[in-house]
Every structure is written in structure tokens, then in C-alpha cells.
Amino acid sequence: MSTPRSSSISPAKLALPIITLVLALVAVVVGYVQTTTGLADLSKALESQTATATDVYGGQSAIGVASAILSAGIIGVVISLAAIGILIGLNGFRRDAVIEDVILDEEFLDDDDVDGIDELELNRAAAPAAAAPAAAASTAPVHAEPVIVTEPAADPAEPTEPNAPEAPTAR
User: How far apart are CA 121 and CA 126, in angstroms?
Assistant: First the structure.
């Protein structure tokens, strides 16, 4: 048995960043072409000494508008790429995955040894550690039961003050 996972992102939402990216790239190209042709026309008119006020001031305004279109296109490309990155992070472009149901056998559920570690091997490995000298007693074996201590811990030692230089005094 398998159940398909439903996607919360509609196909229209998936297509929107891609359409925006295409439109932004068109705006970049149009803005670039208009800006470069406007600059070339203005330079040619100024170098030929025949430029009129309309050529100069109108050309500057046209270049300003074209550069605004170019800037808007660049910003649109960045935003649409960020949106596409977010959708990729959310697995928006992935087809619906099929999640298979896990069926557990009765034999697996009745087995107490689900961790896959054989306790007999641990007991055999811990036996030489129990016979070790008292110096090694500080490290408890893995299978040891928790120890409950009923006697109080040793009194803490008096803290010693560090030898720090005296702070300067105000005069």
C-alpha cells in the first residue's frame, strides 16, 4: 500500500517565478540595448558639433529611462532567482513522491532484542573488566546499573584568591 504525498504548491505558483525570470531578462536586454544606443547617439551628436538642445537634453532623459528599465530588470532577475531557490528548497518542483507504508511482522514486534546487540556478548566482555584492579574502577562498564550514593560528598576545598595586582586608586 502506498499513499501519495500531496503538494501544497500549485502549478501556477511554480510557473510564476519562471515567467518573472523570463520577463526580467527581457527587461534587462531592452534596457541594455536602449541605454547603449542612446549613449552612442548622444556621443555622436556631441562629437559632430551639430547637437541641438533636444538631442542633448532629450537624449539624457532617454538614457535615464533606459537605465531605469535595465535596473528594474536586474532586480527582477535577482528576485525571481531567489523565489526559484526557495521553491527548490521546499521541493516545489519535485513530483509527488510515493511513501510506502511500513508493515511490521509479528515476529519483529515480539522480539525484545530490537537494538541488534547481543547482551550475552556484552556480559562476556565486561567480566574481565569487573576483575580489574581498583585503579580501573573509576571507569564503569557499559552494562553497569546506576550507583546510588548515600554518603555525602567530600567538603569542597576553600577557594584561594588569585594573586592579582592591585587596582590603581584615584588620587
Answer: 9
Strand partners, 4: 98
- CA–CA dist 62, 57 (Å, integer): 9
Axis crossing angle, helix 53-89 with helix 11-47, rounded to the nearest 10: 160
Say how many Å lie between the first and final Cα of the chain, rounded: 87
Q: Taking a C-beta distance cutoff of 8 angstroms, is the pair 58, 42 a contact?
A: no
* Each residue's pLDDT expressed in tens, for the chain with a length of 171 residues: 444 455 566 777 778 889 999 999 999 999 999 999 999 999 998 898 888 888 888 889 999 999 999 999 999 999 999 988 888 888 776 665 555 566 666 665 555 655 655 555 555 655 555 555 554 555 555 566 666 767 766 666 676 666 666 767 776
Residue ranges covered by each domain of the chain: 11-95
44 in Cβ contact with 30 (< 8 Å): no
41 burial (CB, 10 Å; 0-12 / 13-18 / 19+) is: middle
Q: Which residues fall within 8 angstroms of residue 114, CB to CB, at 6 or more apart?
A: 108
CA 78/CA 27 separation, integer angstroms: 13
User: 84 and 14 in contact (C-beta within 8 Å)?
Assistant: no
